[in-house]
Design a protein that fits this description.
Blueprint lengths: L2 H6 L1 E3 L2 E4 L3 H12 L4 E4 L11 E4 L2 E4 L13 H9 L6 E3 L2 E6 L2 E6 L2 H10 L5 H26 L9 H8 L4 H6 L7 H7 L6 H15 L8 H8 L1 H4 L2 E3 L2 H15 L3 E3 L4 E6 L5 E5 L4 E4 L1 E5 L5 H4 L5 H11 L4 E10 L10 E5 L11 E6 L12 E10 L2 H5 L2 H22 L3 H4 E7 L1 H8 L31 E4 L9 H16 L35
Parallel strand pairs: 1-13, 2-3, 2-14, 3-10, 7-16, 14-20
Antiparallel strand pairs: 4-5, 6-9, 7-8, 11-12, 12-13, 15-18, 15-19, 16-17, 17-18
Helix pairs in contact: 2-12, 2-19, 4-5, 5-10, 8-10, 9-10
The structure holds flavin-adenine dinucleotide.
């Protein structure tokens, strides 16, 4: 092949986005909508990453994330879809999540009054403790309200330049001043202050919830992030109609409708900074792209192996802050509907034993498809996802026999957890697939299968978090759940939105409408061919 042939194959674009997880999809769709010709390269054969989906034996399973936040009126997914001029994916509010502890069930209610009663009655041992519990939860509610309001205004942390400072000025409010003193506290500190730290069932309940939302337990989870994490059900979680496939496809359709180009099965193997500026990007299958800007939707752990530059000095501190992330062990069950009551809540949390590690099946999160959701399961069937935390390293070191034995052991423990909720579950299982960190590494490309962002502590979050530009490369942004603000689909969306803000110079998603209207998402507009950079609308 001559030099000319090679040159012909180079795709030129304004922005190359690497990875079509929620962060990459959000950044790509917003940039494309604002006139930046965007090429989105995804290694897998479907978009979504840890919020993706797969098909097996007639079932459509969510691969990782199953519940969504950010679909409320001020939510970040709502704001994104509004800017894209695309319909918000349909979803149903989850009204109640029962948490089964070894000796009691705590019904976490979306209804404020019901939840305010339940969270005191289930844990108070006397009237004085009930009063302290009320005070603790009032503080959590107040703090969470401030955090949600602040998130809707698109914070940009850590502070790395004047634009970040200016963006965060919008957050200052009397409510914010009220929670600022807790900036350097943990949830554990607040429990101690309310003399609740020794209430073991309460601690176990909070730790289980915090592990899911902040990847850390009360003693290490920052108070501000932890308060928001403990508040997610009151704030409102939803399940997309048709599961995560519907949510992800809505992003892909909006991106394509604006003319964006998504290339699947294109694992990027090299990102080479060019002497004159910009980047050359190469994939395993020989695709070569050139872009003045790169948005990398990758966990920070993946970066050193991909970028052809010595990042060791720049990344040493961020990688230290990132530490080793959790892995997930997941069970994907296809079950006959008769073993699950039609009116059962879609989500449950189970703790098998007090005083033991939450990992490897002692704590489990259950997510069901709706009884009438034909996009997820055949008639008379439902999907049931069950997940638990697990340390990643042991899975990689194990011999094939030890790996299989451990997989069987955790599967068994998770099935025991499911039986606490649905006693006849084993009679109804038609399909059972376990997933380990090795599975996640294979399908999402994440280093060692570490998922769910960082174990959030005071020293790797908010003001001290990892920034999108911390790799120190010009016109290069890292987005996704290992940079601010962290894990979960709205948080990942915010990291993508922040990259879009940096690139376009916009301050907010609701800024004046684009000069041209979005084509109707259903109209299957043919993607525009990649071409030399477009003239950009003024910021
Ligand atoms: C089991 C589990 C349950 C969860 N439950 C929830 C939940 O209910 N709600 C919630 O909000 N969050 C949940 N989360 C967290 C949430 O799913 C993630 O934080 C979020 O989806 C991460 O998105 P991301 O954009 O950071 O990256 P990822 O999802 O990791 O996406 C990155 C993408 O980049 C691609 N890629 C990787 N390397 C390359 C390469 N070299 N070239 C090209 N492409 C590449 C990958 O294939 C992937 O598609 C859960 C996570 C797990 C694992």
């Amino acid at each position: 092949m001559g030099a000319q042939d090679v040159a012909k194959k180079i795709l030129e674009c304004d922005v190359a986005v690497i990875g079509a997880g929620v962060a990459g999809l959000t950044a790509a769709a917003l940039l494309q909508r604002d006139g930046y010709q965007t090429l989105l390269l995804e290694a897998h054969d479907k978009a979504g990453g840890c919020a993706g989906y797969f098909f097996h034996k007639g079932y459509n399973f969510d691969a990782g994330a199953t519940v969504l936040m950010g679909l409320d009126r001020a939510g970040l997914h709502t704001q994104t879809f509004e800017r894209l001029g695309a319909p918000l994916p349909e979803s149903a509010l989850i009204r109640r999540v029962p948490a089964r502890l070894p000796d009691r069930t705590v019904n976490i209610d979306h209804d404020q009054a019901a939840w305010a009663r339940e969270r005191v009655e289930r844990f108070a041992r006397d009237a004085a403790e009930a009063e302290r519990l009320r005070a603790f939860w009032r503080l959590i509610d107040r703090t969470a309200d401030v955090m949600w309001a602040a998130t809707a205004k698109l914070p940009s942390l850590p502070l790395r330049g004047w634009r970040d400072i200016a963006a965060n000025l919008r957050l200052v409010s009397p409510g914010f001043a009220g929670v600022a003193p807790y900036l350097f506290s943990t949830i554990g500190d607040a429990l101690r202050r309310h003399q609740l730290h020794e209430n073991a069932p309460l601690r176990a309940f909070l730790d289980g919830l915090l592990l899911i939302t902040a990847q850390e337990t009360a003693d290490r989870a920052p108070f501000l992030n932890g308060a928001a994490g403990l508040d997610i059900y009151r704030h409102g979680i939803r399940r997309a109609r048709g599961g995560m496939k519907a949510f992800i496809k809505a992003h892909v359709e909006a991106f394509r409708a604006w003319g964006g180009v998504l290339k699947l099965r294109q694992r990027v193997t090299r990102i080479a900074p060019q002497r004159g500026g910009g980047y050359l990007i190469e994939t395993e299958r020989g695709l070569i792209a050139r872009a003045p800007r790169v948005v990398a939707n990758l966990p920070i752990w993946n970066l050193p192996g991909l970028v052809e530059a010595d990042l060791s000095a720049r990344l040493a501190r961020p990688l230290e802050k990132a530490g080793t992330g959790w892995g997930a062990f997941t069970l994907y069950l296809g079950v006959r509907a008769e073993v699950i009551p039609d009116d059962a809540p879609l989500n449950h949390q189970v703790l098998l034993r007090y005083g033991e590690s939450f990992a490897d099946g002692n704590s489990a999160f259950l997510s069901l498809s709706e009884p009438d959701d034909r996009a997820s399961a055949p008639p008379g069937r439902r999907t049931l996802n069950v997940s638990t935390h697990t340390e990643v390293d042991g899975w990689w070191r194990a011999s094939p026999e030890a790996y299989a034995a451990r997989r069987a052991e955790v599967t068994e423990r998770l099935l025991t957890a499911v039986e606490r909720v649905f006693p006849n579950i084993r009679d109804g299982i038609e399909c059972l697939l376990p997933g380990t960190p090795v599975t996640f590494a294979r399908y999402t490309g994440r280093a060692r299968g570490m998922v769910g962002g960082l174990r959030t502590t005071l020293w790797n979050s908010n003001l001290f978090g990892i920034g999108a530009r911390d790799a120190g490369l010009p016109n290069f942004w890292l987005v996704g759940d290992t940079v601010f603000p962290g894990q979960g689909t709205p948080a990942c969306a915010l990291s993508g939105i922040n990259a879009w803000r940096d690139i376009t110079g916009h301050w907010a998603l609701q800024s004046p409408p684009a000069r041209e209207r979005a084509p109707a998402v259903k109209s299957a507009v043919k993607p525009a061919p990649l071409k030399p950079p477009l003239a950009r609308p003024a910021p």
